[in-house]
């Protein structure tokens, strides 16, 4: 039973996936479909049923009246066979809109193709029932008239009736009303939904801007009550986060001052001491502690205070590569000429992110290459090296603060474990991220992905 249930559910799952692929992705289009589709579907079904039944009923009654007029003319002709029937023909033309002619000793013409299936079927039924004579209906010979030929025995009676007399225009009017109402409904729904969706779009834009570190002070709650509550909750959350960051920055500023003062005194006392092995070891320890404090404060402070601005990433990469080649490390950094690419970001923060990655690559590799890739949504700064790389299972650990994977390989030049953590913090504060992969050069590839 379980197997049959699973087999029965598979078509439903495929249907659900097909519907999901066809449905639009944005909220506006989905809401519009939810509102308009049921109304249009029900209106179409009801209109089809009504029009079909109404049109056939009205056509049947009109054809019945025409058949009665023709039966009256046939009866009048039977009363005066072979006489002068011009008066009857004139009466039929003026009062009944029937054009009549008689062809003696003639046979019925051959049937023609059907032009109006329902009309011809209903008309033939009513003529057979009311007139009771063999009849051939021709709707092709004249675009504006219906020709009918009756076998009277001694000849053929030809009757021409205007097409507009046996058809009704109420269906066209009803169709145009239906289309007009549907267009009106669609217009009202679009205007209404656009006003309802706009506050949600503004809330999304404000959240994205705040996530990238940009200001969104002009955002105010608007729209429906639920959207206003969500907007108010976002504003309160943003204020709490900004207050927390401001308090953290102020606290770290005090810690920085308190830590620098004793370190400065220790450096002065070491400078006044004589040369010796103990003095050199203590100096290295003080320098190491000072460097750790600087990196820790930089990590904790983040990008506080810097505002995003339009920046040429190609020029930024060239500047960082030039500084790296001019620095104290001997590993060359290759940065080919790149086309200008302007993106809004915090320049100093992204520069520091790139500097940390390049410095990390120079520390372990013999060659470093920096490149740039861009798409419609993302821009990527790529740092490749030919060093030993990082095992797959340790790459996420490399981003954890104070985790140092290079102590055993290079204990003298090992960092304090904050370079990659700071770099990822910068990338994520811009709405992007950093990914570590295998490099085509054989070492490690670091990709900084930022939104355009």
Shape descriptor:
rod-shaped
In percent, how helical is the residue content? 55-70%
Largest sheet, order of strands side by side?
Answer: 6-8-9-11-10
Mean pLDDT: 82
- Give the low-confidence spans: 408-412
Question: What's the total number of strands?
Answer: 11
| Radius of gyration using CA atoms only | 44 Å
Could you say how many structural domains there are in total?
A: 3
Second CATH tier, the architecture of the largest domain: 2-Layer Sandwich
- Class derived from helix and strand content: alpha+beta
CATH structural class of the largest domain: Alpha Beta
Total of DSSP H or I helical runs spanning 4+ residues: 10
Query: How much of the residues is beta strand, in percent?
Result: 5-15%
Main sheet properties: 5 strands, mixed
CATH topology type of the largest domain: Heat Shock Protein 90
Q: CATH superfamily name of the largest domain?
A: Histidine kinase-like ATPase, C-terminal domain
Q: Give the distance, in angstroms, between the N- and C-terminal Cα atoms.
A: 53 Å
Helix-strand pattern = HHHEHEEEHHHEHEEHEEHEE
Pfam family, one: HATPase_c
Membrane topology: Multi-pass membrane protein
Domain HAMP: 194-246
EC number: 2.7.13.3
């Amino acid at each position: 039973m379980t197997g049959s249930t699973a087999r029965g559910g598979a078509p439903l799952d495929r249907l659900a996936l097909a519907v999901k692929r066809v449905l639009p992705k944005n909220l506006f289009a989905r809401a519009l479909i939810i509102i308009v589709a049921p109304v249009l579907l029900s209106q179409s079904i009801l209109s089809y049923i009504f029009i079909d039944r109404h049109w056939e009923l009205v056509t049947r009654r009109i054809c019945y009246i025409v058949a009665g007029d023709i039966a009256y003319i046939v009866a009048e002709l039977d009363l005066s066979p072979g006489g002068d029937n011009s008066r009857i023909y004139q009466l039929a033309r003026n009062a009944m809109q029937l054009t009549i002619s008689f062809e003696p000793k003639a046979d019925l013409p051959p049937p023609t193709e059907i032009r109006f299936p329902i009309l011809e079927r209903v008309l033939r039924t009513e003529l057979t029932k009311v007139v009771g004579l063999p009849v051939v209906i021709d709707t092709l010979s004249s675009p504006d008239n219906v020709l009918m030929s009756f076998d009277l025995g001694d000849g053929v009676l030809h009757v021409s009736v205007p097409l507009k007399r046996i058809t009704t225009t109420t269906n066209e009017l009803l169709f145009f009303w239906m289309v007009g109402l549907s267009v009106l409904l669609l217009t009202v729904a679009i205007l209404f939904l656009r006003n309802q969706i706009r506050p949600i779009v503004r809330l999304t834009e404000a959240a994205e801007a705040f996530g990238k570190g940009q200001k969104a002070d002009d955002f105010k709650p608007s729209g429906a009550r639920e959207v206003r509550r969500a907007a108010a909750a976002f504003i309160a959350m943003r204020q709490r986060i900004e207050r927390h960051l401001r308090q953290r920055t102020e606290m770290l500023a005090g810690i920085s001052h308190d830590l620098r003062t004793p370190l400065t005194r220790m450096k002065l006392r070491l400078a006044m001491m004589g040369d010796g092995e103990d003095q050199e070891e203590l100096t290295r320890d003080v320098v190491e502690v000072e460097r750790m404090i600087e990196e820790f404060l930089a990590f904790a402070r983040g990008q506080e205070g810097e505002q995003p601005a339009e920046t040429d990433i190609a020029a930024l990469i060239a500047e960082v590569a030039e500084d790296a080649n001019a620095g104290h490390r001997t590993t060359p950094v290759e940065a080919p000429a790149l086309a200008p690419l302007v993106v809004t970001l915090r320049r100093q923060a992204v520069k520091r992110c790139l500097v940390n990655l390049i410095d990390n690559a120079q520390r372990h590799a013999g060659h470093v290459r920096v490149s740039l890739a861009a798409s419609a949504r993302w821009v990527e700064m790529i740092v490749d090296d030919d060093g030993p790389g990082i095992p797959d299972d340790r790459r996420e650990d490399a981003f954890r603060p104070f985790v140092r994977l290079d102590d055993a390989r290079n204990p003298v030049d090992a960092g304090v474990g904050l370079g990659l953590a700071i770099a990822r913090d910068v990338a994520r504060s811009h709405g992007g991220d950093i990914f570590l992969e295998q490099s085509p050069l054989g070492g490690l590839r670091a990709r900084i992905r930022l939104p355009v």
